[in-house]
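Possible race condition, two jobs.
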Amino acid sequence: MSVIIRDACISDAPRLLEIYSYYVQHTAISFEYTTPTQEEFCRRMRHIMSRYPYLVAEVDGKAAGMCNVKLKKAPVHPVVLPRRYAYIDDICILPDFRHMGVGKALYEALAERIRPMGIRKVELKVWAFNESAMGFYEALGMKPQNIIMEGHI
């Protein structure tokens, strides 16, 4: 198995939309209820690629995963140090390619791209019930930063 990480291009949109669509249709991870149209997905890709890293993981020549980020600044706040960081918006790996090093390869390639920009921190949101993702991120050395609690009244 050969994993190659490269920058996305707009011609990747149909396959990346398939990957993203899996998460929209089969998980509670996405915040969307319907898969975007290809036109809308291309618009989003162009917007992200014009400003931020957008990576594709290919396994044996076929896209198996993707990762896109936004570069952000922490707001001035008494309990938060001012800093720049990368926020992972999406990291999606098709089920057949999980636990094969694809996600780790995407994360490491992302780190290689943002370190020269002076960025040393990566953040993301993950659902507490998503134990597989939590384990993956913890294996990469990530730790919970803040926790949002909810309750029914």
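Job #2 (started ~2 s after job #1):
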Amino acid sequence: MSKKKRLKKQKAPKNNKNISENLRKPPDIGQNFVQWTVCEMDHEYGGSWDWHLKSNEAYKVLGYLEELSKKTWGEVEQERTGNKDGHRKHHSMLVSELCKEARDRLKERFQNEELPEELYRFRLAGKVRLWGMRSQTTFKLIWFDRNHEVYPV
């Protein structure tokens, strides 16, 4: 009869000195390229920020998204309006700061899910915005806001 070898129990280290420093840091999303999806697109909405695009609007949006996917999130976050000290061109906004119609529409769309606390918006030009949710490296398109009405100023 052969003897079974017993494995010694080893204690876990008291500190994480053996774990690589890179493994403890959260990943830097800023180095990843922007990805986008239409999985959350509010194509049923028929109002001020709907997806009933004219052909020139569709061309501009698709061209913008194509160029956007060539940038990293870090590059996007650094873009400013006007000079380098200007307002951030693209950023998150609290849902509570959006117009009532937008908040109500989100409640209607996410009634069986957790309502997002914030949305991300891209400034295309002038008053034109793309609104959606940012999930790590992916931008989930929701609305095309032609006249800056989701968050009026």
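The radius of gyration is 22 Å.
Logs attached separately.
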